[in-house]
């Protein structure tokens, strides 16, 4: 959903491995800068991750990702509801290849803003929805504070790396944040 924290997460990731320790305002990322590229080494191999930040059908329907991250705002129950009711269906509709959806990760954002409230989403609720949708991973982090961002990126990298072959990615696509 728009405003759930995807751009802030990518901005935090763009700061590199010391992102959680960076203080002050995060840089503003622009749509024209996409894809946001991260080159890393893992399992003694180089990997290039291309992230696309989109909630707009005009943009995401043109992509062919190898891995999809379904993001939601943990402070907004409507945002969680939209993951299975809107975004999961969009993944199947637009990205299914050979009868299979790409690997999925469900990611709760704005963890730092979670306070006991009627509309807040607790980790076990998000995890349950992720299991019902048969997601490969579930995680939460706070891009604003950097809390668990490194761990989430590691989860993303490990899961996405499993989608590669010796020749590279299963498709020319990268990773989509929805």
Describe this structure in words.
With 178 residues, the chain is α/β, with parallel strands linked by helices. It is built from five helices and eight strands, in the order αββαβαβαβαβββ. The protein is 30% helix and 22% strand. The strands form two sheets. The protein has a six-stranded mixed β-sheet, with helices on both faces. Strands 6-7 form a two-stranded antiparallel ribbon. The longest helix is centred in the middle third of the chain and has 19 residues, at 77-95. It is globular. Residues 167-173 have low confidence and may be disordered.
Structure classification: alpha/beta
Rg, Å, rounded: 15 Å
Task: Spell out the helices and strands N to C.
Answer: HEEHEHEHEHEEE
Into which percentage range does the β-strand content fall? Answer: 15-25%
Instruction: Give the termini separation.
Output: 7 Å
Average predicted local confidence, pLDDT = 83
Q: How many β-strands, per DSSP?
A: 8
Count the DSSP helices.
5
Topology (elements, then pairings):
Elements: H1 6-13, E1 36-42, E2 45-53, H2 57-60, E3 67-73, H3 77-95, E4 104-109, H4 123-132, E5 137-140, H5 149-161, E6 164-165, E7 168-169, E8 175-177
Parallel strand pairs: 2-8, 3-4, 3-8, 4-5
Antiparallel strand pairs: 1-2, 6-7
């Amino acid at each position: 959903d728009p405003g759930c924290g995807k751009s802030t997460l990518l901005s935090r990731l763009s700061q590199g491995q010391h992102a959680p320790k960076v203080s002050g305002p995060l840089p503003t990322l622009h749509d024209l800068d996409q894809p946001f590229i991260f080159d890393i080494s893992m399992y003694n191999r180089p990997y290039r991750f291309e992230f696309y930040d989109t909630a707009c059908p005009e943009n995401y329907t043109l992509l062919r990702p190898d891995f999809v991250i379904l993001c939601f705002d943990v402070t907004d129950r409507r945002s969680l509801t939209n993951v299975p009711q809107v975004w999961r269906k969009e993944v199947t509709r637009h990205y299914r290849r050979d009868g299979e959806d790409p690997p999925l990760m469900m990611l709760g954002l704005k963890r730092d803003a979670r306070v006991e409230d009627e509309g807040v989403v607790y980790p076990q609720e998000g995890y349950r929805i992720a299991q019902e949708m048969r997601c490969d991973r579930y995680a939460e982090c706070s891009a604003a504070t950097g809390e668990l961002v490194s761990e989430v990126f590691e989860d993303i990298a490990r899961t996405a790396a499993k989608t590669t072959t010796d020749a590279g990615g299963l498709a020319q696509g990268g990773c989509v944040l929805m």
